[in-house]
Amino acid sequence: MDIWLVDGNPAGAVPVTDRGLSYGDGLFETIAWRDNRPRFFDWHMERLAEGCRRLGFRCPAEKTLLSEMEAAAAGHADGTVKIIVTRGSGPRGYAAPRAPQPRRIVGYVRNTDAASSATGAGGITLRFCRTPISANPVLAGLKTLSRLDQVLARSEWQDPGIAEGLMQGPDGKVVCGTMSNVFLVKDRRLLTPDLTVCGVRGVMRRVVIETAQQLGIETAEVQLSRHDIMSAAELFVTNALIGLWPVAHCGRHAFEIGTVTTTLCRALQARGVTECAR
Amino acid sequence: MDIWLVDGNPAGAVPVTDRGLSYGDGLFETIAWRDNRPRFFDWHMERLAEGCRRLGFRCPAEKTLLSEMEAAAAGHADGTVKIIVTRGSGPRGYAAPRAPQPRRIVGYVRNTDAASSATGAGGITLRFCRTPISANPVLAGLKTLSRLDQVLARSEWQDPGIAEGLMQGPDGKVVCGTMSNVFLVKDRRLLTPDLTVCGVRGVMRRVVIETAQQLGIETAEVQLSRHDIMSAAELFVTNALIGLWPVAHCGRHAFEIGTVTTTLCRALQARGVTECAR
Fold first, then answer.
1. Contact B138/A149, CB-based, under 8 Å?
2. Which of B162, B97, B85, B153 is closest to B124 using CA atoms?
3. A21 in contact with B at a CB cutoff of 8 Å?
4. Nearest-CA distance B198 → chain A (Å)
5. Could you tell me if the ipTM is greater than 0.90?
6. In the predicted model, is pLDDT for residue A226 greater than 90?
7. Which of A152, A137, A264 is nearest to B51 (CA)?
8. pLDDT attached to residue B112
9. What digits encode the pLDDT tens for the residues A169-222?
10. Among A83, A99, B143, B186, which is least packed by CB within 10 angstroms?
11. Three-class secondary structure assignment of A108-163
12. Is B4 part of the contact surface with chain A (CB cutoff 8 Å)?
């Protein structure tokens, strides 16, 4: 059974007046819990704090969240921890309370379903989604609770052989996967979509960019078309729970799992992203 | 005190695993409760049903919602009723459960704050918001729980003298108010923004368009620029609770409350939109 704490107290429910429910007025983080600790916790906290700042409410203290994660994990060494922070309860209407009391919802989830998806030793199969991702620079980069785009994109396929779907912005540029960021290798450079207009700035995306730079691999955040994806020398997707999944197929097109991908996988393993060893 | 029913039972809370909270995966309706009945209930139900169809889960039966609204209103003749329908609970991850059990949350709110805003006999004051509204044709028209754009736009001002703010899409076209639809009169035609890419198809918007057509006023859904707004002969905003608010000012610019607006107000009153008599 999953264990949840609401504002520090074991609870399975939140008030119906919570603005997270009413208006998607909040943020979340999904964190790999490894060896009794949250992995890359500082970077998850950085994104959460930036989100709270941009949405305009107080971010819970790191120490509070950490102790609540430990309480929720309750001695389990490995799994997934989820933190939701909402603007708290309020009266009906979009106008936020003058002095919001943000609500913390912290849960431990034993089953790390994402990591257990059929990835295969030879890389995953990817598809393109028809559902576009909403463009809005004021929300771009954040992991907000307003995630219907991703829900609808993920509902486009049931085939368990397809591990992820790529989403495009209204302008047709490729932005991300439904639950991941995407990278490609072209002319030995590591390219990933620019996220100033839409998309979530994944923590593992940041780890990969930093790791690549440490390895001397040139990286850039750019606009990428569907053609750029299909003509890439190497292609992979990342998130905090799966680490890095090389892409072997997108539709009928096959991709090689090349040296940049395998070099990054090894370096990520050394940083504790043991999922890359699969 | 507000009264809420969750799946028909008096309850103040929903499970933390509800996808409405996790991902904004649901819809809502805010309905004027007048003379012990929901006003324009059929049209609220039509939009809710279309939303459920497009999001891909079963819409609750009209009869069920009606009896739950009556139970929540508990003998109060007037007020506001809110219906939230989510995809229900599910495991972590965007992928929806194969057989979702949609959750109904029905509440009665005594204080109709929107209608009590300082509208003044001479029309409201409007502003333009900086926060753009997200564009996504797959969600356009629906009143989903993913409403962070509106929350951030509404947070741009505290001045109680400003009743509403207009939002523009990424292309700069004017789409709607934070909680209302917008109409203008130009060359004796009644124009309102086309909502195929973003915005909510308000029930009162539909009432106004239908009423105008019955009165022989030519109407059209078109692309409107900020200049179109500022050069309008008449300007007003609408929603299910406020009815129709004439606009007297936008920034320093003053608008006349002209004959089309006053004619529509009278016709709306005759249809039970008594707020227009203020």
1. yes
2. B162
3. yes
4. 10
5. yes
6. yes
7. A152
8. 53
9. 989 999 999 999 999 999 999 999 999 999 999 999 999 999 999 999 999 999
10. A99
11. EECCCCCCCCCCCCCCEEEEECCCCCCECCCCCECCECCCHHHHHHHCCCCCCCCC
12. yes
Q: Tell me the three-class secondary structure of chain A, residue by residue.
A: CCEEEECCEECCEEECCEHHHHHCCEEEEEEEEECCEECCHHHHHHHHHHHHHHHCCCCCCHHHHHHHHHHHHCCCCCEEEEEEEECCECCCCCCCCCCCCCEEEEEEECCCCCCCCCCCCCCEEEEECCCCCCECCCCCECCECCCHHHHHHHCCCCCCCCCEEEEECCCCCEEEECCCEEEEEECCEEEEECCCCCCECCHHHHHHHHHHHHCCCCEEEECECHHHHHCCCEEEEEECCCEEEEEEEECCEECCCCHHHHHHHHHHHHCCCHHHHC
State pTM to two decimals.
0.95
Mutation for A interface: B14, B134, B171, most A CBs within 10 A:
B134
A10 → chain B, closest CA residue:
B16
> Taking CB atoms and an 8 Å limit, are B14 and A12 in contact across chains?
no
Residues (pLDDT < 50) of chain B are 114-117
B180 contact A CB<8A: no
The residue of A2, A18, A23 whose CB has the most chain B CBs within 10 angstroms, and thus the best one to mutate to test that interface, is A23
- Contact check, Cβ <8 Å, A16/B107: yes
d(CA A171, CA B134): 13
CA distance B3 to B106: 8
Task: Supply the pLDDT for residue A91.
Answer: 87
Q: How far is CA A37 from CA A31, A40, A66, A71, A243, in A?
A: 10, 9, 9, 12, 16
State the SS3 of B43-101: HHHHHHHHHHHHHCCCCCCHHHHHHHHHHHHCCCCCEEEEEEEECCECCCCCCCCCCCC
Segment B17-60, tens digit of pLDDT: 999 999 999 999 999 999 999 999 999 999 999 999 999 999 99
pLDDT in tens, A48-72: 999 999 999 999 999 999 999 999 9
What letter represents residue B218's amino acid? E
